[in-house]
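Lab notes, practical 5.
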Amino acid sequence: MIELRAPSVVWHREWLDFLGRYGTDGHIPGAYAFGVDLHRLADPQVFQDWVQRLLAAEAGVGMPDGWVPASSRWVVRDGEIVGVTSLRHELNDHLLKVEGGHIGYAVAPDARGQGVAGQALRLTLAEAARMGINPVLVTCAEDNTASARVIERAGGVLEDVRDGTRRHWITLPDVPIGYAARPLSQRPLLGRLVTLALASAAEVEAMHAAGVAGSTDPRRCLPEWAAGFPRQDDLDGTVVGGVPEGTPGREWGTRLVIRRSDNLVVGTLGFYGPPDPADPHGHVELGFGLVESARGQGLITDALRLAAPAAQASGATVTAHTAYDNVPSRKALLRAGFRVTGERNEAGEIRLVRPRG
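Output from the prediction step:
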């Protein structure tokens, strides 16, 4: 029987046995080493410190620059460690465009060809579903045909091969409402297609200085803006000066929707303030919009799947309104887990809510 176990100091001997069977030169694909030569882990204190760093990384604490939070797991069979997996909670540009993806894994040579990798990958995908990571990017070397077969059997669809790396996407069934997303913070939210970054004071000032862009004078757009940005709705959702950076509660402000394929700002998404402490259900309203040229690319669905779960993990009940005849907006909300309530606001827009738990 294969199971995934969180790192623990009680597995010191089993880890050293695995390391010896793996025959590593101090590096194991899929294992977060944090610059530690894995052979030094024979020292109990070094091992304890390393385990603590792995557990902290799962909460996003103490991460080196350029690293993302990740859940490290040891693949255990009959009380023996036979492999490792790492589930990265989000993708930075390197993991998305170069190599790494969401999941890394490795199996000891004496356990290969026995279905261990496939079972470990399926268990890690189940954890990804519980965290709301969907779809999942899994990569392997172009010449690693065995790993490619494992990924394809798990549902991986090859997108392309880049610099010797095969990039597969695995689309999971609809993830359950109430999964273990990380609470909303002031750091960017990284998705498959977009990055959601809080607009800085300088960016907001530039937006308002440009006015409604593109439609009147494309030269007033900054190089990192898509033509047509900002729209009037983008300006309405921001205030020059606003909330100073680092101020508690700023995480509920307006975020720039940055398309990751070209790093252009194509719209905004934000909450109309933090939840009211007097509201036992913590309702917050979510608004969003894109320039016309960026619509129909799945960007808003990706953005909603980032922002709404994080808000829920912060204790909010997330609502949104859209015009009844705005079919693309309604479909994006439904794909992101929202449900139509049957209510309408004063403007006649239908109300949707994303259930909690």
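Observations recorded by the TA: The chain is about 25% helix and 25% strand. The chain has two domains: 2-170, 189-354.
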